[in-house]
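Sharing a chain and its predicted structure for anyone who wants a worked example. Both blocks are below, sequence first, tokens second.
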Amino acid sequence: MSKTEKKGVGFVKQAAILAAASLMVRVLGFLYRLPLTDMIGDEGNGIYSAGFYLYNMFLIMSSAGLPVAISRMVAEKLALGEYTNAKKIFRVSMITASALGFVCMLIMLCFASQFCMIIKSERSFYCILTLAPTVFIVSVMAVYRGYFQGFGTTVPTAMSQLIEQVFNAVFSVFMAWFLMKTMTGDKIAWGAAGGTAGTGIGAFAGLCTLFFAYYITRGSRKRRFAKDEGGYDIETGSQILKNLLKIAVPVITGTAIFSMTNLIDMAMVKDRLSAIGTYSDKEMDALYGLLTGKYVTLTTLPVSISTAIATAVIPSIASSLALKQHKAVQAKVDTTLRLTMMISIPAAVGLGVLGNQILMMLFPNHPEGGTLLRVGALSVIFLALSQISTGVLQGLGKVNAPAFNALWGSLAKIPVNYFLIAIPKINVVGAVISTTVCYMIASLLNFRALVKATKVAPDYVGMLVKPTVASAVMGVVCWGAYKLFYMILPSNTIATLFAVILAMFGYMAGMIAVKGFVRDDLQSVPMGGKLIRFLEKINRI
């Protein structure tokens, strides 16, 4: 295996580490929402989500672009042997992130009441207060994560994410129970605030993990930095800040625009439901809770893998570009897109086929919302495409294109929301449809920019056609298996679980039949060597 190929395999392994951690984080996040939803219901989920989406906007403004910018800048400097500049990037980034996070925290604390009026959710006041300190903590975490990723390792990020989510899960449920039991007044609002309080506790645990990782790895960094041969220009703090912002601001802008889609839904869902004239405030909170607590939570679960791959691909592509390894760049682009779609397309089909059954299994006391999953399953594919193409473009240095493309997608969402949500038979399903339209437009525009940047079209057959054919086979197996098991043993939970297991085998069989697996991809995943030898025997690779 050549040096370039080893670097490609290393990138996929780092992506796999982060993807596995991200998936576990999403699963943990989903699992703790089950008892939380039992306590606060869909109504409480609506209050929780309103405050959380506002927090997310401040989080984006303070730190969203920093891991991307830092990892890319550090990776480039390390590839060129400019170790002093790599160290200075960390120091300048830490000062910048701390200042931004602190300012955003103060704004949230001082203007919580005003924000409640803007987001039209006065009951989210305590959620906003409990989330404010978390903005500062996560801003500092972003610097550590970006720095580690610039060194080509995602292990500290993965570990911190897992520990953060464990603490988040435990304390979100505990604080919700504690506040509902001890506080007077609006119990559901206090329960939602308890859920958001756990987010801050988890973030602090994650920060402690990263600091510990930074401390114990200082020796290896010192040995590497000792090899600095000099002979290059040492960048000033202002130069580093300028370069940091040059990369981070477009990333922040693009991420903020996509986050705006959540705020658009938050503002428009209640307004357009009010236009129908038949829903009370609590009913509108419950419908919004269905949208955010179930549809968003479940559809973003598989997308967490594409997010992790995008995070890992940015410094890897940046490093290859700095060394002018253009073939390696193209190989990484194709691998990234294939892996993302091999996961996202079957996930979308599974949610579409078993939407009602999954909700009945997971939320037996609040099973509503299956229609949102069935209609919105397609958004999983386009959201994953949008995120991974954004990561690839950012790795290629094209940070402005995803921001503009996200803007066009978000603008298209507004009129679709306006007309569809006010139709009584559609209501919040209109927001699901508009979300799919938004991500579809953004991802298609991203791909046009990607082809223009690389001068080579992605492997559309391997990325889209083959996983789609295999997923269609999986969908038939999934539905048939559910019907069969439910006839034999009329238990929705058992029938759903068996259907999902058989669907996985159906998808694998479909991918083998269409020769959907690529040797280079399999070489970098666990048990990949054995699967390669098996596929070689049956002439399917």
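Comments welcome. The CA atoms of residues 25 and 218 lie 27 Å apart.
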